[in-house]
User: Which sequence fits this backbone?
């Protein structure tokens, strides 16, 4: 299922150039996470390439190297009791994570598609996606991600600046739905910004 | 056939995140409508997931929950004698349903593609797609949709604000053609707005 | 082969909603042209749906109705000795055919991709695509298309205003190459116009 | 593998109209390069269409004509010790190669995706993609490409003006990763330029 989501994300252009990484919790006590290895093409991901890591991001099964961002996956799993974490690099999430960085995040409000996010019952919802500064090395942990998750306990995703989207869910199905919902909304938001006045004037 | 249209719409990005719903009339007396259930992935829609509802949106066959928007499907079927109703969430219909909301609708005029709409014989046709305010709960019926359909008896589609497109047809084939025609025209319209002056000046 | 090109064009969004039509000369004396029938879905085109018409656009084989635009195909075949004529409705050709109509055509200059057009040996070529006013009824012939082809004997394509692109070639392979080349260049041109200043300033 | 990359690039719209060419070193002493022939559809590339050329771009195996740009492939192989060279014509690389030509190149800085380029360890990397003037005839060699490669020894790609992208790698896998990384970044860059102020203001 991780490999299938990888192929779908690659086909949509959300995981080009071996970017992106995907994980799912496979055991809780002790914590065990299935995760895509570093540097692997998500369009050709085979189930046997998936690694298993422990709660310290050490590989316990499989032969590849875990992504440096495994620490972010672990931080999300713990902060949100997530069963799956998906990280993609789409054009729109990358672009907005940079252009909106001065504001610290992106607000999305009023769209029906927001109801695809777990627990959201009305389009009159305001989703705030925090933007966290990117870093070179996450191997020592991801305190800035943890802080953003704590500061925004209702957020269904977060962006790393110039880097892309992280979202999650109770299980892979829900995480995949959140991925599609947020990538859609970021594209709407990005395109809307390209010509808001023109759009309103002509109306 | 509903499942095939669901997969096509999903592939084009018009039904991400379990959004969208599709229906077809399967009996008239009493009224019976086949409809996609709530919360189902349109890219993986299996024929056996399709429900059947009666004229009060109560399920009479199948095991899922009908969409809250079943009332809109019923309103369209009755107002237009439609045999099929298709609802999608594309980026462009979502974006324009928001940016053009102050005008109450979107006018599309002069495009050959308009002749793909039933009964339209010339590109010199002006299609008015009304925009209806979105609501949280449609279970009690869809009076605002009914009112828009009555006020614009020639419209081949309507938009819910911040939500997406509804279109319909005598049968599924015609509804699918209207879907493609209107999504195409909304994209042209949306892109045109991004740079109308630049386009005209350089010409 | 016509059906294969139809499916490709549909998949790229260049022939949605049963739009577009495709033809290939199958006999010269007397003139016989294989052509897609009116109102057929180009994404599901079966070889047996292709019609054959004579030099007056009358069907001589097959059971569908020829497109009203068969007269345009005949005009192109005669003016250019074309072996195949392809007509598509992409978003960018539709948009530019409208925005550039006051100028009477679209100039494309300096792109390497131009060398994909038959007889063009250098990127320093200036291709002029004339824009012809759209009409409701082409059944009586296409004098405005003939006039544009005569006035621009080097053009590899032409646009109908608000309608789309016509291109052609010695055979289907060449016509298909011209289609891809021109649709590509129209997209480049359309996107360039959206932000030429921004692009130059930042450079 | 060349044919597979050709089909992928075609499907994404990076090699329409028989544009693009792909090569891989198959022998070093004497130098032998497998390369796609001139004028071939990259979406239908069959392994048996691939040619083999020597270090003077003369065919030594296969029946087609090598691309006029074989000299560029040879220049890249020699300057970079590349095992594979990929040349594509995407909309964004074409557009930016023209709009940024006055600056002599395109700087890309701060994006995580840059780490997909060999040897880049941090997103805080500044990639400079030189833009070389396009020419009609490369058969006599590619001194301007050689000069650009020497002047920018760290560049992972270069653009020909109005023409497209060249990138390379130690082997085909790495070259393909560089292609996806650079095409992604050029799209981000191109879209960002369309509305940088709007994006920042609204944030």
Assistant:
């Amino acid at each position: 299922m991780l490999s299938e989501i990888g192929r779908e994300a690659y086909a949509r252009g959300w995981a080009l150039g071996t970017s992106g990484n995907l994980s799912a919790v496979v055991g809780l006590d002790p914590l065990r996470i299935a995760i895509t290895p570093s540097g692997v093409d998500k369009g050709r991901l085979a189930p046997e390439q998936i690694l298993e890591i422990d709660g310290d991001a050490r590989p316990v099964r499989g032969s590849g190297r875990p992504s440096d961002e495994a620490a972010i996956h672990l931080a999300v799993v713990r902060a949100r009791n997530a069963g799956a974490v998906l990280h993609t690099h789409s054009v729109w999430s990358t672009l907005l994570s940079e252009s909106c960085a001065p504001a610290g995040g992106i607000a999305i409000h009023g769209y029906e598609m927001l109801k695809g996010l777990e627990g959201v019952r009305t389009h009159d919802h305001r989703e705030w996606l925090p933007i966290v500064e990117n870093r070179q090395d996450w191997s020592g942990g991801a305190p800035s991600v943890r802080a953003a998750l704590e500061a925004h306990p209702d957020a269904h995703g977060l962006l790393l600046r110039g880097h892309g989207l992280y979202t999650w869910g109770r299980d892979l199905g829900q995480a995949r739905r959140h991925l599609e919902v947020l990538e859609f909304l970021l594209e709407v938001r990005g395109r809307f910004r390209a010509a808001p006045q023109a759009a309103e004037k002509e109306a």
Summary: The radius of gyration of chain B is 17 Å.
